[in-house]
Amino acid sequence: MTLEEFRETLSDAAPPGDADLALQALWWVGKGEWDRAHVCVQQQEGEPACDLVHAHLHRLEGDLANAGYWYRRAGQAVATSSPEEEWATLVTGMLSRGGPTALHPR
């Protein structure tokens, strides 16, 4: 699936059936459903992909200290791109690599 195909699924009622929790969370973010996204990532705290999306969520809400904590837990540098660009980078990375590896290298 490409980023554009993923964006097209945002008109659906639920995330793609094969999406892992991190990708489901990004799908909910794409629909403006922060709370539902947060529930997804909380289910797999300690998994780098979920921790990175968790960081993105707290960055979106403006809680930069908490976001920094989650970026560190994910082993990633704090994103410097716009939130929209970070979302697209996260989605693309997870779709193409199956995870967040080196999305924000330190």
Any overview of this molecule?
The chain has helices at residues 3-8, 21-30, 34-42, 48-60, 64-74, 83-97. The protein is 60% helix and 0% strand. Mean pLDDT is 92; it is low at 99-106. The protein is mostly helical. The protein has one domain (3-8, 19-97). Helix 2 (21-30) packs antiparallel against helix 6 (83-97). The protein is globular, with a radius of gyration of 12 Å.
Features of the shown structure:
106 residues, mainly alpha, 6 helices, globular, disordered C terminus
The tally of domains stands at: 1
- Element order, helices and strands? HHHHHH
> Percent of residues in helical segments?
55-70%
Number of helices: 6
As a percent range, the share of strand residues is under 5%
Task: Please render the helix and strand layout as text.
Elements: H1 3-8, H2 21-30, H3 34-42, H4 48-60, H5 64-74, H6 83-97
Helix pairs in contact: 2-3, 2-4, 2-6, 3-4, 4-5, 4-6
Gist?
The chain has 106 residues and is mainly alpha-helical.
